[in-house]
Amino acid sequence: MPKVKKTKKKARTKRNARASFEPSFFERVGAIVSRYTLASVAGVVVILVGFVAILWAGGYFGVLAERAGRLANAAAISAGFEIRKVTLVGREKAAPDEVSNALGPLLGMSTLALDLEAARARIERLGWVKSASVTRLLPDTVNISIREREPAAVWQMSGRLKLIDDGGAVIRDVGAYEYASLPLIVGAGAPEAASSLLKSLGAHPLIRQQTAALIRVAERRWNLRLRNGLDVKLPEIGFDKALNTLSTLEKAQHILDQNLEYIDLRDPERLVLRRRGEQVSDGARQ
């Protein structure tokens, strides 16, 4: 009999253990609700992503952004931020209509809606303009300040003449008799190559005033053709020093007014002069 009692106790223990591991009714219901909830959320996300993709492909976001921009612009204008005046400072040679066209229609638009950087970039694409700034003067004024290029030479290329500054930037096309007092630069790519020489000539006004042309020789060095027909042969490297020497000789001896065919400054240790009518060896012709 004792053995039977022990067996029943063990059976009850096993049933209780199995019952403790089986989920209750409420737990089963909660699991089912959770699965359906997650599935519903995932479905909503998929639908939203698809909807956004359709709007993007159809350009609706751009339309909405444009409408929002118009509304913001109208609100700013209603608040008094309307462009009523545009001021321009620093303009001397650039045509006013060119600046106006670069800016586009400003009057009547919102002061706050103006893209200052884009406006500045458009103005700086004008040939005469070296740099520009565009600022708002709230509530109703836009101020443009420009710094213009200084003409330094006329570049001749393929039968056309272009005005350039000392950095080689093209300002505009010119006629045959415009800016005749400026030196003429001849050759492909010459403006960029002549930039350093033009800046050096700026430090020697006596030489620059008498220079009629800058002639590129073998795409590696320069000759100065003066207005009296005198050629000055400059070295490939170190033309600053050569111009200093020439400037010193001009101040001391008025060498540029003498009856010379050329002055050869290519050798820093030896100055070569050739008077008109003298014979010259083949080695000195280059």
Could you walk me through the main structural features you see in this protein, from its secondary elements to its overall organization?
- The longest helix is centred in the first third of the chain and has 33 residues, at 25-57.
- The model is unreliable at 1-7 (pLDDT under 50).
- It is elongated and about 85 Å long.
- The protein has 2 domains: 75-148, membrane protein fhac (Ubiquitin-like (UB roll)); 151-284, Rossmann fold.
- The protein has 8 helices and 12 strands.
- The protein has helices at 2-21, 25-57, 60-78, 96-103, 116-124, 190-201, 205-210, 239-253; strands spanning 85-89, 129-137, 141-148, 151-157, 160-165, 170-173, 184-186, 211-217, 221-226, 231-233, 260-264, 272-275.
- The protein has a 9-stranded mixed β-sheet with strand order 6-5-4-7-8-9-10-11-12.
- The protein has 286 residues and is an alpha/beta fold.
